[in-house]
């Protein structure tokens, strides 16, 4: 029996233990900022006691030293290429209100009808489990790896806090001597190879108005007799300009979607066009919209807080400039706004770049061959519509990366009834293991 076949058999024989590990993993409530318990009590002990790493280390650069990243390092025997796996233990929390929309307890995993339900099952404790158990399976085999093998289970991803997570964790491995590694990140991709992703930034638009008692609204909207106050001398309904701005952004978003042809990110899977992500060129999301403060007053101000997703290769400064142009165009028909400009700002909380990795990278080819070996099907290369740690691993640490993992963001990620299919979980575990043997072996 070939080594890869033996490892796949080992994974099948340990399916129950693998799922038990994931169930326990989900049981740790680990929203971003509160990752200590899951990392110290679940991940680190497993690395030290159940795996054959040459080195297990904690990397914690948080102010209170309570947000540990866990790194495992297995030194290769020769001059083989290095492989880094990466995943995050932090999850999106579930409020009491949101929990009522779940049909299961988000912190007490349920295994039902081929699925594991629970917060993090999909994003991304399920994929982390697959990576951990794939490496354990390789360690339990007789294969000797020439290239170094590493795994970082990190913190901070969900709130764009890579300065505490993937950046220091990856740099610590590079400082240990890891040379020219390739990173496989386990974000849920339906077991497709995501070679590029969106970028994203946040923005805020503040629209000035002028409060007046709602009974006087007609004075602000219609001409009055000579000598009576009218228009902006009385009041300005900021919500009217708000709707104009929203319409301008809607038209701009449509224009962007017609403009950008963004490879597999915008065009779907290749060479097999059956990807599960769908097209994802660009989006202007006006997420939080407010106008006014008192029910009996004309809205004296309005705000839009939003989020832009954009494709790799787009000029982000140009995008922001066009948003400003669209907003400023509203003032061309408003004497009030010409004298009281709308204020805009961006990147106050989120400035997350995209990533791009060549599909013909040797590690991508090895990963694709592993997919074919395990599934009997041709690999699908597509794009990640969301954002992930790869962007920082690539931009800040100089390590090329792709995402490949079980589940997808439509399976309750950041929402109710988050879940991961067990068949995809096992398939990903086998693909990871085969990639390790073929790339590092």
Automatic annotation (TrEMBL):
Transmembrane segments: none
Organism: Natrarchaeobius chitinivorans
The entry's keywords: Hydrolase, Zinc
Pfam families from the UniProt entry: M20_dimer, Peptidase_M20
GO molecular function: hydrolase activity
Domain Peptidase M20 dimerisation: 199-330
Annotated signal sequence range: none
Protein name, entry field: M20/M25/M40 family metallo-hydrolase
């Amino acid at each position: 029996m070939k080594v890869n076949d033996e490892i796949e058999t080992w994974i099948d024989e340990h399916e129950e233990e693998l799922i038990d590990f994931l169930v326990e993993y989900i049981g740790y409530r680990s929203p971003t900022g509160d990752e200590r318990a899951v990392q110290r009590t679940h991940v680190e002990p497993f690395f030290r006691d159940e795996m054959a790493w040459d080195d297990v280390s904690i990397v914690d650069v948080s102010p209170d030293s309570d947000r540990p990243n866990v790194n495992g390092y297995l030194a290769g025997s020769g001059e083989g290429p290095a492989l880094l796996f990466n995943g995050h233990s932090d999850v999106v929390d579930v409020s009491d209100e949101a929990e009522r929309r779940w049909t299961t307890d988000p912190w007490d995993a349920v295994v039902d009808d081929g699925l594991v339900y629970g917060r993090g099952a999909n994003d991304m404790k399920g994929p982390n489990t697959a990576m951990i158990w794939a490496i354990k399976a390789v360690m339990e085999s007789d294969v000797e790896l020439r290239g170094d093998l590493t795994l970082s289970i990190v913190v901070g991803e969900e709130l764009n806090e890579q300065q505490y997570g993937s950046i220091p964790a990856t740099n610590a491995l590079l400082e240990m001597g890891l040379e020219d590694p390739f990173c496989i990140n386990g974000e849920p991709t339906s077991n497709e190879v995501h070679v590029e992703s969106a970028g994203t930034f946040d923005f805020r638009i503040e629209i000035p108005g002028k409060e007046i008692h709602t009974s006087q609204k007609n004075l602000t909207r219609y001409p009055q007799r000579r000598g009576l106050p009218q228009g902006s001398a009385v009041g300005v309904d900021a919500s009217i300009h708000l709707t104009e701005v929203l319409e301008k952004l809607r038209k701009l978003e449509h224009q962007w979607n017609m403009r950008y042809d963004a490879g597999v990110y915008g065009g779907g899977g290749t060479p097999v066009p059956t990807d599960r992500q769908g097209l994802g060129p660009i989006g202007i999301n006006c997420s939080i919209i407010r106008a006014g403060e008192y029910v009996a007053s004309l809205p004296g101000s309005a705000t839009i807080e939003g989020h832009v997703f954009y494709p790799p290769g787009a000029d982000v400064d140009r995008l922001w400039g066009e948003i400003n142009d669209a907003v400023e165009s509203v003032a061309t028909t408003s004497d009030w706004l010409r004298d009281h400009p709308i204020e805009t700002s961006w990147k106050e909380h989120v400035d997350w770049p995209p990533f791009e990795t060549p599909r013909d990278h040797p590690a991508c080819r090895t990963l694709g061959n592993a997919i074919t070996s395990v599934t009997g099907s041709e690999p699908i290369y597509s794009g990640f519509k969301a954002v992930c740690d790869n962007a920082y691993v690539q931009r800040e640490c100089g390590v090329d990366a792709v995402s490949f993992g079980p589940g997808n963001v439509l399976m309750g990620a950041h929402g109710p009834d988050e879940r991961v299919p067990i068949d995809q979980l096992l398939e990903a575990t086998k693909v990871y293991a085969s990639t390790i043997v073929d790339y590092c072996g």
